[in-house]
Amino acid sequence: MNNINDSYDLFVFLKNKNLLENSPEFWWPSYGTFETFIGAILTQNTKWTNVEKSLENLHKHDLVSLEKIANVDLLLFTQLITPSGFKNQKSKRLKQLCQNVIEDFDNFESFQNEVCREWLLEQKGIGPESADAILCYACKQEEFVVDSYANRLLKKFGYEFESYEDLKSWLEFGINENLDKITRFYEFDISLNQIYCRLHGKIVEFMKNKHDID
Ligand code: 39A
To answer: Which of 19, 28, 129 to mutate to test the pocket of ligand 1 (most atoms within 8 A of CB)?
Structure first.
């Protein structure tokens, strides 16, 4: 079995497996846009393919904008996001969330630049994983997303973590400690946020495609 001492070892283990060859560069489609903000909520407790169907419906109705969702007809919105499940809860929460963003930040660009984890965690229906997904993929902030895939992969390597925050710290620490070495793997300038995106994406793809650790 491969010996994984820290998240740098995990990075090296996943690096040459071509796990992102069919994905966008920073894995999450439309990285850095409002679409990832909605996707981070829609993906709660459902498969990504269902999220894609909801996003397609929203695009067809030209509703992928902060202002439009804040003012959307709730019945129509609920109908359009039905494929991603928990439709009544998610539509109500997403609409309210968009209204709160406008009230506190005025527009999505200011939200991207100014929001912090604490603000997100105060919002109804946003836990640590959704908060970090929004910060990492919609706001390009240096926050690693921890999900059940990361938990299950590290369990295979013999690790168990007591909390979300413990696993997040473990994932971030090994990367930060070896940042110079990691950036040299890339032929282009890559930021810490982008390294987090790619490593998180690799973990998800590795687990979804049922690869083995041997
Ligand atoms: N579970 C997931 C995903 N699976 C995903 N992609 C594939 C592209 N995203 C963006 C979020 N959550």
So the answer is: 28
66 CA from centroid of ligand 1 (Å): 21
- Asked if residue 40 lies in contact with residue 134, where contact means CB atoms within 8 angstroms, the answer is yes
Nearest atom, ligand 1, residue 27 CA: 8
Q: What is the rounded distance in angstroms from the CA atom of residue 95 to the CA atom of residue 3?
A: 46
**176 and 196 inside one domain:** yes
C-beta atoms surrounding 210 within 10 Å:
6
Q: Consecutive sets of 10 residues in the chain, 214 residues long: mean pLDDT of each?
A: 91 95 97 98 98 98 98 98 98 98 98 98 98 98 98 96 98 98 93 98 95 83
| Rounded Cα–Cα distance for residues 6 and 56 (Å) | 39
Q: Note whether 113 and 192 are same-domain residues.
A: no
CA of 51 to the centre of ligand 1 (A): 9
CATH number reported for the structural domain that contains residue 18 in this entry: 1.10.1670.10
